[in-house]
Design brief:
alpha/beta, single chain, binds calcium ion, Arc Repressor Mutant, subunit A, 252 residues, 9 helices, 2 domains, Rossmann fold, 40% helix
Length: 252
């Protein structure tokens, strides 16, 4: 009879969960780059796309800005005065995973692998186009938001490994292990689809979200890192096809 009580009344006195993915808020990007013209060009382009941007000109200033602003994404130059990009990347990822797009003047594979091993999610070699930078920034943020807003099981267990999609934390045998955002997304993607083989192309499309140069090699190097950090046999290689996690159970 009459009008049903509005939902808000039912919820009064109940603590509501914080909105996910910081929806509706302006996203913050910290640009850590000592070459001022590049820093300013990147910042100007990001601001024109609606981001709030702060520039830091060396490593310690970048770490300070990340502590203070808790950015949604960091654009990080590899060669920085006082503290290099690799060390900065480790420190800003230490407490809270944040997507990092690394800028590098060098283009050798070892630099790429070092960059990815310390937790950069993606990299670009200078000189780069602003259009491509924006495409990658959008892809990294979309990925982070998709991961936060998943309809897949929240907690997935693979043997001794427990993946929690809400906190984006991983435990092996009860001990926390640090994964970069993309490592987490990759292993969670496979674990949420147990027994199904995913091709490298599928993983690039679903986890990275755009074309990565040397794409297949990028997937392989991330799988190697996941095995090293979590368990050597957590991911099965299906030769000529792709990768799979055979057994996983949803806990929540
Ligand atoms: Ca530099």
């Amino acid at each position: 009879m009459g009008t049903p009580a509005p939902v808000v009344r039912i919820l009064r006195g109940v603590t509501l969960p914080a909105p996910r993915a910081r929806d509706g808020l302006v996203r913050t990007v910290v640009v850590i780059e000592d070459e001022q013209p590049i820093a300013e060009a990147v910042a100007a382009r990001l601001r024109s796309e609606g981001y709030r941007v702060e520039i830091a000109a060396d490593g310690p200033a970048g770490i300070e800005a990340c502590d203070r602003l808790q950015p949604d994404l960091v654009v990080l130059d590899l060669m920085l005065p006082r503290l290099d990009g690799i060390e900065v990347c480790k420190r800003i990822q230490h407490d809270r995973p944040v997507p990092v797009l690394m800028l590098t003047a060098r283009d050798s594979e070892s630099d790429l692998l070092v960059g990815l091993a310390v937790g950069a999610d993606d990299y670009m070699t200078k000189p780069f186009s602003m259009r491509e930078l924006i495409a990658r920034v959008h892809a990294l943020l979309r990925r982070a938001e998709r991961a936060a807003d998943t309809t897949l099981p929240t907690v997935v267990r693979v043997g001794d490994v427990e993946l929690d999609a809400t906190t984006r934390r991983v435990r092996v045998d009860g001990e926390f292990v640090h994964l970069t955002p993309i490592e987490f997304d990759l292993v969670h993607y496979l674990a949420a689809r147990p027994g199904r083989v995913s091709t490298r192309e599928e993983l690039l499309a679903q986890v990275w979200g755009y074309d990565v140069p040397s794409g297949a090699r990028t997937v392989d190097s991330h799988i190697r890192t996941i095995r090293r950090k979590l368990h050597p046999e957590i991911v099965r290689t299906v030769h000529g096809v792709g990768y799979a996690i055979e057994e996983a159970s949803a806990c929540a």
